[in-house]
Amino acid sequence: MSVVRFIHRENLQDLVFSIIAQIYCRHNLATNGSSEALEKLIASIQDLIFNLSLRMLGNISDAEDATQEILIKVITNLSTFRKESKFTTWVYRIAVNYLTGYKKSMFSHYPLSFEYYGNDIAMKNTESTDDLYLSVEKEELAKELKQSCTNVMLQCLDAQSRCIFVLGTMFKVDSRIAGEILDMTPDNYRKKLSRIRQKMAGFLSYYCGLTETGFCSCNERIGYAIKRNRLNPQKLEYSNLKKYNDEELMAFTENMETLDEMASIFSDLPTYKSPMSAKVFIAQLIKSSHMKLILNF
Fold first, then answer.
1. Global model pTM greater than 0.85
2. What residue segments make up the domains of the chain, in order of their start?
3. Is residue 107 a contact partner of residue 101, using CB atoms and an 8 Å limit?
4. Are 35 and 23 in contact (CB under 8 A)?
5. Of residues 222, 231, 205, the one with CA closest to residue 118
């Protein structure tokens, strides 16, 4: 997706001049090496932002769009970073503020609730047949469905609760830092996280078969998901994402006996590499027609 698209979305003059100021002036990015330095900076944070966006928005396409938009916000606000906190904490704050108010994702237009999703899970499963699989292994389809289902399940939480749960359970952010990111006390954050975990655990224990008490099975839901266009055997998005380790990640196989252990369904999810290339992103940004226009003004 072209960076030029995002330049159109913002105030063009303010955005481009801000980028120029950061790249070509004095913010620790020497003129001769600015592009390379900026590329390294983007590469160091893009995967963090992509994984946070994916859990917050529920699908890969929306996460990619949000990641690029957040990265532009980071670039254009570099001069405001005062080193009063860690750089990653500062990036988290920008990302969280943006994602909790994001209104362009699919689920912002079609919001979910635990009641609605539970009713959907309780519907009669569609019988799976080999012709539905399109020669894809059933095990591979079940893995894809697990990843998709878990991210969709997160959308049943309101934006702030989702963010608290994701930061605490999946990113394992310290309560002090999480409180700083979300502008709340560490104690308040821990209390909210505990309540959200209990709510999620109650839902999982009733519906998810991998908790040993729930009745839903991903293997039995494959046919239903395909027929409802929720799973496309010819386009397995999660399977095609690169992961940070090559070992097979069995994210849903551990027995869960306590509420916190039930949350491991989420904490064990793979961490993905962003599909976006930092080098291409910066090259597109600097070489865009709008950038050239402003530079020659």
1. no
2. 3-295
3. no
4. yes
5. 205
